[in-house]
Amino acid sequence: MTNQSIPVIINGAAGKMGREVIKAVASAPDMMLMGAIDTSGEHQGKDAGELAGLSEALEVPITNQLEPMLGYVAGERQLAPGVIVDFTHPDSVYDNIRSAIAYGIRPVVGTTGLSPEQIKDLADFAEKASTGCLIIPNFSIGMVLLQQAAITASQYFDHVEIIELHHNQKADAPSGTAIQTAQLLAEMGKTFNPPQVEETEKIPGARGSLAEEGIRIHSVRLPGLIAHQEVIFGAPGQIYTLRHDTSDRSCYMPGVLLAIRKAIQLKSLVYGLEKIL
Ligand SMILES: NC(=O)C1=CN([C@@H]2O[C@H](COP(=O)(O)OP(=O)(O)OC[C@H]3O[C@@H](n4cnc5c(N)ncnc54)[C@H](OP(=O)(O)O)[C@@H]3O)[C@@H](O)[C@H]2O)C=CC1
Ligand SMILES: O=C(O)C1=N[C@H](C(=O)O)C[C@H](O)C1
């Protein structure tokens, strides 16, 4: 660790993703973990390293004091610019990002559930503050590749639906990844799924949620799942299915570390891992 190391705060440190990020940051030679924030009552004061399952303590206690931590890292002028990684909850992520930018700490955000209006507002705020901010709906390289394949396929198929499948602790639906995938296809400039018949939903929601440009998203929540997505294209006589499966949350860590390194170079908001690869 040197003064050139990137100071990192993890918000949501006691959660499923937060614990993975603790391990990843602790093993990155160019980063130092300076703070571990979590509102969960049962973990206050515990050592972040021990909570994440490391054999040695990191001497970084879990605390719920976000603003004092932002102020402390912002005040460490001899260090590189600070970064806060956010894997918390859709209800708090907007305020977390605004607070971090106000202190000049760069947010790297994995938490989903932000509305397009909130993302626009945050982009304006980051631009005015000349502060880097990354909002990444999915940090896995496999999902970026799936989305690129889907963009290619969408040039040749007019019919497509998305199925996303997640563990049943997930707060938001549809997933941030499915929404982003639909947005990327919608940017191709065509309307998908022209109606073939007049449909009636006998049970509301049977046909899933209607995202941009006629693309439907179906959300499955079950114990035993982690994070999975299918993009299914159909045409007369053929089906083309793209599928990504997460079997371990460590798959997100190369993307998280890349985003932390990128965040200190940026002066505005970037949305999507594909923009920094
Ligand atoms: N972009 C990506 O690649 C990925 C994104 N995600 C997203 O990340 C988010 C977190 O996922 P996951 O780790 O599975 O969720 P968890 O519920 O396991 O972890 C979230 C943690 O944050 C805590 N928390 C909640 N609110 C706050 C707050 N305001 N301030 C600080 N801590 C808070 C929770 O405490 P408590 O339990 O007490 O509420 C919990 O410990 C979700 O939005 C998920 O969709 C997940 C995986 C990959
Ligand atoms: O909650 C999760 O687990 C995940 N959330 C993100 C999303 O909503 O897309 C990313 C990944 O699917 C895992």
Structure description:
The chain has 277 residues and is of the alpha/beta class. It has two domains: 6-135 and 250-275, Rossmann fold (3-Layer(aba) Sandwich); 141-246, Dihydrodipicolinate Reductase, domain 2, CATH 3.30.360.10. The chain has eight helices and twelve strands. It has helices at 16-26, 48-52, 66-75, 93-102, 116-129, 141-154, 176-186, 253-263; strands spanning 6-11, 31-37, 62-63, 83-86, 106-109, 133-135, 159-166, 209-210, 216-221, 227-235, 238-246, 269-271. The strands form two sheets. The chain has a seven-stranded parallel β-sheet, sandwiched between helices. α2 (48-52) links the parallel β2 and β3 (62-63). Bound molecules: NADPH dihydro-nicotinamide-adenine-dinucleotide phosphate and the ligand O=C(O)C1=N[C@H](C(=O)O)C[C@H](O)C1. NADPH dihydro-nicotinamide-adenine-dinucleotide phosphate binds at residues 11-12, 14-18, 37-40, 87-90, 92, 110-113, 136-139, 170, 252.
Question: From the helix content, strand content and strand pairing, which structural class follows?
Answer: alpha/beta
The molecules bound to the chains, other than polymers, are: NADPH dihydro-nicotinamide-adenine-dinucleotide phosphate, the ligand O=C(O)C1=N[C@H](C(=O)O)C[C@H](O)C1
Q: Which bin fits the share of residues in helices?
A: 25-40%
Q: What order do the helices and strands follow?
A: EHEHEHEHEHEHEHEEEEHE
Total tally of structural domains: 2
Main sheet summary: 7 strands, parallel
CATH class division of the largest domain = Alpha Beta
Instruction: Give the CATH superfamily of the largest domain.
Output: NAD(P)-binding Rossmann-like Domain
**Strands ordered across the widest β-sheet:** 3-2-1-4-5-6-12
CATH architecture of the largest domain: 3-Layer(aba) Sandwich
What is the mean pLDDT?
A: 96
Number of continuous helical runs = 8
Give start-end ranges of low-pLDDT stretches. none
The amount of beta strand, in percent, is: 15-25%
How many strands in all?
Answer: 12
Subcellular location: Cytoplasm
Organism: Richelia sinica FACHB-800
Protein name: 4-hydroxy-tetrahydrodipicolinate reductase
GO molecular function: 4-hydroxy-tetrahydrodipicolinate reductase; NAD binding; NADP binding; oxidoreductase activity, acting on CH or CH2 groups, NAD or NADP as acceptor
